[in-house]
Amino acid sequence: MQYNAIVKNIKDITPEIKLFFIEFKNGQKFNFKAGQFAVLALPDDKNDLDGLWHKRAYSITSSPSQDQVEFYIVLVKEGKLTPRLFSLKAGDEIFMGEKPAGLMNFDGVSDTDNLIFISTGTGIAPFVSIIREHKDEILNGKRQVALIHGARHTYELGFKGELEELEKKSPYFHYFPIVSRSEQELGVEWNGYKGHAQSLITNGVVEKKLGVSISPENFHVFLCGNPKMVDETVTIFMDKGFKRNTIKEKGNLYFDKH
Ligand SMILES: Cc1cc2nc3c(=O)[nH]c(=O)nc-3n(C[C@H](O)[C@H](O)[C@H](O)COP(=O)(O)OP(=O)(O)OC[C@H]3O[C@@H](n4cnc5c(N)ncnc54)[C@H](O)[C@@H]3O)c2cc1C
Fold this sequence. Notes:
About 20% of the residues lie in helices and about 30% in strands. It is an alpha/beta fold. The strands form 2 sheets. A 6-stranded antiparallel sheet has the order 4-3-6-1-2-5.
């Protein structure tokens, strides 16, 4: 394995969440579909490039038309790769796999199907890519689109500004940031949604805001984030008659666990 890409820029969201902007060294464009993930890797010892490399999957947040490939990454302090990623600076080298993967894309979705994206933490990443790629269509309003993003605290709600802007511009796009821990303890005023991401489905808040009854006939649902949220939400939608989308069988429920 060898370095084939350069970190062009890094932006801090919090000390433990960063955006990484990466390009291939040879200038080659990365061909992927919005919603897919790529592999990033760094050597265990940067002075031993022939030794062990740590490889992990990361969802891409940029749209395929952007020049730099963007990733939204949270630090796992005891992890093998993320502490190494967090010590990088702009201009440093990295490995980025040339083959994207993942079924979290729009292939089976028609122009008029309504969409619900439900995420926690870094699980918002593939949805940001999809929303950026389909922004014109979202603004033109052929469908209703809801995006739920659950985090522990408001400061972890990455992309909030960009998504609120889009919501202001389009009556068809509905953004639901929701936090599970007390903001009051941090001295932050928060009059928004509180609790777990999936509660906004079970308590009818999303359905009411969209003004459309959620059914498998007119919705595709995408889930990404922590395994507990994904498992609980899969059950909620399967009970409503949704079917998992797989390579073999088309469905209307798509999910990935981070
Ligand atoms: C399809 C896919 C897409 C992904 N996309 C993203 C993404 O967009 N952004 C992102 O930050 N991560 C993403 N991940 C997770 C990522 O691949 C790594 O697992 C993560 O960055 C941890 O890597 P590490 O080498 O630092 O930790 P590891 O050395 O792999 O793990 C160390 C320990 O920490 C635990 N651990 C792993 N992740 C977490 C976590 N998030 N919180 C707490 N404990 C954890 C592990 O179970 C293990 O016990 C994705 C995973 C998959 C499968």
